[in-house]
Design goal:
zinc ion binding; metal-binding; 5-stranded parallel sheet; Rossmann fold; alpha/beta; nucleotide biosynthesis; Adenylate kinase; single chain
Amino acid sequence: MSHRILLLGAPGAGKGTQSAKLAEEYGIDHVTTGDALRANKDMETEYGTPRSFMEAGDLVPDPVVNEIVKTALEDADGFVLDGYPRNLEQAEYLSQITDLDAVVLLDVDDEVLVDRLTGRRVCEECGANYHVDFQPPEEAGVCDECGGELVQREDDTEETARERLEVFEENTEPVIEHFREEGVLVEVDGEATPDEVFDRIRGVVEA
């Protein structure tokens, strides 16, 4: 059976990790807004192509993002959606175009999220991700994969992390309420190990 899963959660909640696990477990597509836009950046919509906005450095408007996501979902035999919808308009659109089997909100305390975000380190050479506490490299500051230097990205500083969480809460609270009112939202404690969190999500999906 193909599943249609929406994963919601703040930056640092573990959506990417859990989405990848779900995609592998159920043989479904991992659909992210960024990947869908890159894969369809020349798709013609009545508002223009995504490429025209991306190359100008502008945010891609909701109607264009909606069409791209709709195409990605129609092409998928089951999916886990991560990073969309980002606002109430997108949430209402999503409810119109597909019936979701599970809407899971990864619930993680803000202080835990800040620790997760500020502890992330990225290899300058190959882009591999590490975390100083949860996934440290064998040698501090050095990538296991290629020996490159590990750096903290600008958007992983504490000030930026807290700003990102504020923006998320402002934009996404109406999305959470939308699915709660529809009776499909299930909150999962996202503060355990990735495997424990995955088992909880799988319990929701298979319920």
